[in-house]
Write a structure and sequence with these properties.
Number of helices of chain A: 12
CATH topology of the largest domain in chain A: Rossmann fold
Oligomer: homodimer
Distance between the termini of chain A: 75 Å
């Protein structure tokens, strides 16, 4: 008999759902009559469960989750949504912290695999050849969030178009100077795609950035860089900030130097932190629907564990939030 | 020969540090000559490592960390500091999320223990009899953060005195009404101690709260409760908020209803979030030194793993940050 018999075939032959066969193989409860039917077909056909099915037979109902760090607004709230969704589905998340380092991300993935997790979700920082090889050999479902990972499943934000929208919004207005306060291209999504979108958006209005100033994701670095910048900028100027956190750093400096927002210096960010509407003037920004992002990511992970079909790349949409920080 | 020979004795007899003996016993690298010296003494004295030393012999260099949730400003930044400190000392943190539920906290502790972690740090939510029994039987070091846990080591914030300071600060001023926007007493530290401090501080000035309004740690609930409150309060009023997050909710409502802060309604919080200085007017609050808290907690955990003496209760001090949100 054909050794390549699949769970799908068994399902068809026994007239039950694929998930029922899978549950039976994993020792879950099925109706006794159904169980007997499946058993008979398996025995008659010398069915050999494949590696993945065997792995699943000892499923841990634990899902690994690696995060670059919690010193951000986006990560903690995204983790909250994912954790809540996984728990509701009787999975326990096990969280590892990668310190925003690819080497640690790889090590965490290997460690989680050795702990026999059913799948791994990665709030990703980037990729390397070595990393891609590790992922390719992994044998358990892995899903990347926030970065497009070559050859693996990813759920990313629509960074390019969000950037384009902001670039265009600023480009249509009259400013003496337009500065980008941006993170390094080592972060492909924010540093790469989002910035490319902003620059293309400005360009579509015949404008270009006066300067792209490199800063980190940290508030303190933004404060430092904007302090230096205020010594030279020509008003009215616009500061396009890679994240709301960076925009907050800009606000702090502009408040202290009593530079009027938005009349002298306009500011925009990305992220729509809860506090954006509390800033004075309220911050114009872009919102990525993080609740939808977290839930659809967790659901995709569950579908992957159940060997259901999922799209290799999913894109989380953005929403433009116009407030009062641009003249 | 005396069977009760300790690592300490071996260290003295071989003239090396206790940590070197420990490293040798755990299969770590020591100088060959030192190793021979220790080996000789152990053999001559029929040294039997005790249960704990044997546990340590298979040390995982993994430390479990349970958190109630990341939907807060304090938890993510505290976790960052702890993780950084542990990693610097070659420990890998494994993080579990308890959803602010004691039952899940207990389950996470048991799970982490079964994963053979060297110690467990708990960002704690409270305690029960059952919980205390689990902790008592644990056999590996456990440290509670933020809540005093009966019979176990804890590092807590100086919530009572911080509350007292704020109560006194508001009590000394003239308000028609003073409202507390507070979390439930189910949280013993913030709901209990901190609130008791505020009320005692007000009382020391001959004042008492007009009403204690129960709210959650969430921004949305604060917004909802302050909206209802603004319909009845007599100005000038003061709102003492259990956390800065709650104070942010108050600001949002007061902005929307165009009620002047601080002249009509004064607001204070606890927590000193980064954004407090960006609010207009900047928020008067209390800061707990979370960096020191995180670092000393992680260091205490390491000391416990190394069986060094540590204080059962350690208190993290507060600092009053006077800004412009109180008339």
């Amino acid at each position: 008999m054909d050794k390549k018999l699949t769970i799908n075939d068994i399902a068809k032959m026994s007239g039950v759902a694929k998930s029922t066969v899978s549950r039976y193989l994993n020792g879950g409860s099925v109706r006794p009559s159904t169980g007997q039917k499946i058993k008979k077909i398996i025995e008659e056909n010398n069915y050999e469960p494949n590696v993945f099915a065997r792995l699943k037979a000892k499923e841990s109902r634990v899902i690994g989750l690696t995060v670059p760090g919690f010193d951000s607004v986006t990560t903690p709230r995204l983790v909250e949504v994912i954790v809540e969704y996984l728990k509701k589905n009787d999975y326990t998340p096990l969280i590892m912290h990668t310190g925003n380092k690819i080497a640690e991300e790889i090590r965490s993935i290997e460690r989680l695999k050795n702990m026999n997790v059913d799948g791994i979700m990665v709030l990703a920082t980037g990729s390397t050849k070595e990393y891609e090889e590790v992922v390719e050999k992994l044998q358990i479902p892995i899903l990347f969030l926030g970065q497009r990972f070559p050859g693996a499943n990813s759920i990313i934000n629509d960074d390019y178009n969000a950037g384009y929208k902001i670039g265009e919004y600023i480009g249509k207005r009259d400013f003496e100077e337009v500065y980008l306060l941006w993170v390094s291209k080592e972060d492909p999504a924010v540093g790469g795609e989002r910035q490319r979108g902003v620059i293309d958006g400005l360009f579509s209005c015949g404008k270009e950035p006066t300067e792209v100033i490199e800063t980190s994701f940290f508030y303190e670095d933004a404060v430092h860089n904007v302090e230096k910048l205020t010594e030279k900028l020509k008003k009215p100027a616009a500061l396009i900030c890679a994240t709301d956190r960076i925009a907050q750093g800009a606000y702090k400096v502009l408040y202290e130097k009593e530079i009027a927002i938005p009349d002298e210096v306009s500011v925009v960010g990305f992220g729509d932190y809860e506090t954006g509407e509390l800033m004075r003037p309220p911050l114009t920004t872009v919102k990525f629907d993080w609740r939808n992002w977290g839930e659809s990511s967790a659901e995709t992970m569950l579908q992957m564990i159940q060997q259901k079909p999922v799209s290799v790349i999913q894109v989380n949409p953005y929403e433009f939030i116009e407030r009062k920080s641009v003249r």
